[in-house]
Amino acid sequence: MAAYPPLEGVVMENVKPAGGLSALARGLPLGLALSLSLLLAGCGKVDPQLTAQQMTMTDATCAPAEVSKIADTDVRKAFQERCDRREQFKPAAPPAS
């Protein structure tokens, strides 16, 4: 075996001690960031039927001009279907005596 010369007088400024953070601790922030991004990515799409059911239905909101202002096409279609059903089930006027 070859003998190595002593390291006397060598400045070791940028040498870190062995050990430090474990691989788990180093990867933890990255794992949390990835988990958060996947969680938020799944929350982007809203159920159009649920959204349309939450909207207030009146004669004014069921007007074609108001329905056309709904940006999401699926929500607009579901809301228009609810307005159409609302028109079908309006009570009849009482008979004239």
Q: How would you portray this structure in words?
A:
The longest helix has 20 residues, at 23-42. With 97 residues, the protein is mainly alpha-helical. Helix 2 (48-54) crosses helix 4. It has a domain at 46-89. It has helices spanning 23-42, 48-54, 64-67, 73-88. The mean pLDDT is 74. The chain is built from four helices and no strands. Helices cover 48% and strands 0% of the residues. InterPro entries: TrbK_RP4. Keywords: Lipoprotein. This is Entry exclusion lipoprotein TrbK.
Biggest β-sheet: count, sense, barrel? none
Question: What proportion of the residues is helical, as a percent range?
Answer: 40-55%
What series of H and E elements makes up the topology? Answer: HHHH
Q: Segments where pLDDT lies below 50 for 5+ residues?
A: none
* Number of separate helices: 4
CA-based gyration radius: 34 Å
Report mean pLDDT, rounded to a whole number.
Answer: 74
Distance between the termini: 120 Å
Protein name: Entry exclusion lipoprotein TrbK
Organism: Pseudoduganella albidiflava
InterPro entries: TrbK_RP4
Keywords: Lipoprotein
